[in-house]
Amino acid sequence: MPSELSCTIQAMVQSGEPFSDVLVHEGQPLRWRHPLTGISKVPDALAGQLSIAVERDQIVQFAAEVDDTWLSDSTQSALGSRTKSFDYARMRVNLYTINAQDALAMSIRLHPRSPMELSDLKHPMLLGQALTHSRGLILVTGATSAGKTTTCTALLQQINRTRACHIVTIEDPIEVLIEPDKAAISQKEIGSDVPTFEEGLKQALQQKPDVLFVGEIRGSDAAQATLFAADSGHLVLATIQTNDTAGALAKFVGFFPAEQQSHVAQQLAMSLRCICTQALLPASTEKRFVMASEVLIGTPQLSKLIEERKFREVNTYIAISKDRQVVSQLNDKLAMLVRSNQITLDAALQVSSNPDQLRELAKA
């Protein structure tokens, strides 16, 4: 029999509300992350008794539904993350302790059951065109919960439908299962199929891939393995968590010690085919998120800036570029969304790296 927490989450999903996360704290009301209200209490009509307080037994029962061995060991090492597909949703559940291990808590991220179509995400056409490359690196960047993996799985789905190739992914966790079409697909999860991103990439290179997806670059080992794969004849998609394009490039190179950064910058300059920076913003009148993105194609001018590590000049290069075959600016997209009343100017300013320019564009 489903637990009360599972039944409640099912009702929340079936309500059509566009929340992305559920936050469960023992002794506290059930909360969600919602585009209109941020982190807030789930309405009483959906949460029922859980709108007052979630009890420890309710958390334990739901944890057992996700993995019946999860709490067989009472030590803190038994906590962590699990992925579970229910009939109503696929989700990543992180279980942890709070209040000096006196209480339990969960953070639950809901994942789509199938990849979104690239056309539905409303990215600039430049991003899809970057998939014509057979080798090199495509970076997708943005803040936490900006939809980076959603974009990458949509790109992989586009490849899956159009190319006879072998796609290998290394993910933590596997958020969206992709059904093979023209491509053969090997999705690997950290902790289950491979121990680490670095080892997963090493193994993947022995499995004759054409396309690789690295869930997130978090350090120098993963960054170096990603560059090696891109340089050795593979198309590599990867995410990195930053707020803008220049920041992503600086962070990538900054993973390495100072004495290695010049060489790494040269490798990145040669490998980079495209970088997409994106943000999710609350719609001004509807209960949904709106995607805004910036796409920059690798060019000799960009390569030179990366090689010389002039990352601060990258945003200037984007701002003054007039070639729409090379760059589609985030501010242009934000201004269009503001002028069409899809988002507010205040929301747009929060994600713009050039707010003064955005204010002018929004007036046009």
Description:
There is one protein chain. This protein has 364 residues and is α/β, with parallel strands linked by helices. 37% of the residues lie in helices and 24% in strands. The protein contains 14 helices and 14 strands. It has helices at 4-14, 44-47, 56-66, 125-129, 148-162, 197-205, 220-231, 245-254, 258-271, 300-307, 312-320, 330-339, 345-351, 355-363, and strands spanning 21-25, 31-34, 38-41, 80-85, 90-98, 103-111, 136-142, 166-171, 184-189, 211-214, 235-241, 272-282, 289-297, 327-328. The strands form two sheets. Strands 9-8-10-11-7-12-13-14 form an eight-stranded mixed sheet, sandwiched between helices. The protein has a six-stranded antiparallel sheet with strand order 3-2-1-6-5-4, with helices on one face. Strand 10, helix 7 (220-231) and strand 11 form a beta-alpha-beta unit. The longest helix is centred in the middle third of the chain and has 15 residues, at 148-162. The chain is globular, with a radius of gyration of 22 Å. The relative contact order is 0.10. The mean pLDDT is 92.
